[in-house]
Structure formats: C-alpha cells, structure tokens
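Lab notebook: predicted structure, single chain.

Context: the supervisor wants predicted structures on file for every construct in the current expression panel, including those that have not yet been purified. This is the next one on the list. No modifications to the sequence; it matches the entry in the shared construct table.
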Amino acid sequence: MFPPAGFEVPSRLWLLLLIPLIVAVYVVVSRLRNRRGMRYTNTSMLESVVPRQSQWRRHLAVALSLLSLVTLTMAFARPVAQADEPLPRSTIVVVVDVSLSMRATDVEPSRIEAAKTAAKEFIVSLPAEYNVSVVSLSGSPAIVIPPTTDHAAASRAVDTLQLQDSTAIGEAMITGLRALEQAPRDPDDPDAIAPGAIVLLSDGENTVGRPPQQAAAEVAEAQVRTFTIAYGTENGYVDLEGVREPVPPDVDTMRQIAERTGGTAYEAESADDLSEVYADVAVESGTRKVDQQVTAQYAGFGLVFALLAALGAISLGVRWP
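Prediction complete. Output recorded below exactly as produced.
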C-alpha cells in the first residue's frame, strides 16, 4: 500500500481521530479486565470453566481491526495517486549540442558521433504517431527539421549536424519552444500549444545568448517539460588553436533547467550511458502525470485487514488442543 498524492474529499479524514479514542478505550477495558482476573485465586478451576485466551492473538485481532478502519476511512476520503498517461499528438523536440567541445574523444569515438547515433536510435524508438523536430545547439541555434511524423527524415536531419562555435543553451531552449509551436494544433483548441517536450543534450556551459534560467522560466510558463542530458566526463578536453581546453559538462545548469520546467535531469558519460538515458526519456517525454483515483485499492486493503481481524476473533473463541 503506497501513500496517496492527495484526497478528493480530505474533510472525511477527520474520522481518523476516532482511532486514538478507540485505542484508549481498549487499553482501559483491558486493564479493568486484568484487575478483575486477579480476584480469582484458584486459576485452575477458572481455566476449566472459561478457556484461557491468548493475549497476543487478542492484541493482533484488535490491531488488524484498527488497520481496517484506517484504510477504509482513507478509501472513504477518495485517495488519488499520480500515474503516467500517454500524451496524444505528442511532439518531441530533440536539441543536440554541436559546439566545438563536442569534438572531445572522452566518449568514443567522439562526443558528437556518439550523440548522433544515440539521438537517431531515440527518434526511431518513438511511437510512429509522434511528431519529431531536431534543433542544433550552438552559438546560433536553428531548427534543422520542423515537427514531422517522418522519423526517417528526422534521423537524416541528425546526420547533417555540423560542429559550430559557441554554446547558447538558453537560445536553444527558446528555439526548441518555437519548433514545438509549429506542431499541428488540436482542432478543438487551436490556441493551445501541442503537447510535448524538449530533450536537451549539452556537454558544456552557456557562453552566449540569454541565461538558461531565463529561458527555462519562459519554457515553464508554456508548460513544456525539458529533459536535460549533461553529456561527457570531467576529464574531457579539446585542442583549440594549439591550446588544450577542458570541457566538462555543466551538470548544475542542466539540473536547474529540468527542475524549473518539470522535467528530469540525466547524466551520460559514455555511449552506453547515453543510449540508456534516451531509452528512459522516450518513456517519460511521451507521458504526463495525472491524478488517478485509487479508492478501490485502499478499500481492498481494508477488507483484507477486516477479514484477518475476523479470523483472529474467531480463533479466540476456539479452544485449541
């Protein structure tokens, strides 16, 4: 039995205050019963008339009864829990970092080649009815291909990505949001942005353009989740004009973006890690959290506890050999 995310009628939970009262009454009655039992000196004669009850069975029966009351009261309050629901007409915007730091070879054969391979596998794994868009992340982010259900074309678009200067993470997020706005709208609600998510892979820190936190606020306002992938290792480096430059991923910024937009932050230090991350994102990005009533589950547990309590009470009235 898992804790619910909330209750549809929380006022009914006030009934749980009766449980401590019932416990107090049980304790008082038990003590009074024990005192009366001490009046008898000839216990062997008493046992022949009244069967001796097992104390632990009696306490267990009462505990199960109380558990039944608790769970049935919670069921009466209509508990709800969050569940994953597939998004209809979902659009996934795949943002791939193509800055010069992606030349680093700490991920074999190189960051950019491993990223391309994993991104194509991710696109192919998505449901056929999903729209997919590809955005390049550099100093000048661009929509490589607008939302399309032609996943083969989207995969070919990934192959065309070329390394460029600078890293504009914030601008790439806004470009991803603009790509999402190009997805087909719901005929019943043409003003609403299509449901979907941005999947952002970057191996470095923001160097130009608006701050990522500012862009994350705008994306969050549009209610678009961003799943971030901090890509590469702390030991990654590239040689630029004869100078060796370290290029560790900016894990903190990636995490802040994901948290601000309601997405999930991942880290990938190898090609295998990246494939596993994209597999997780494929599930998360195509679903949304919804409240689902779990009254039946709590009522079921309540009935089970009540049945066990009844069996315990029956056992108290049986004289065991």
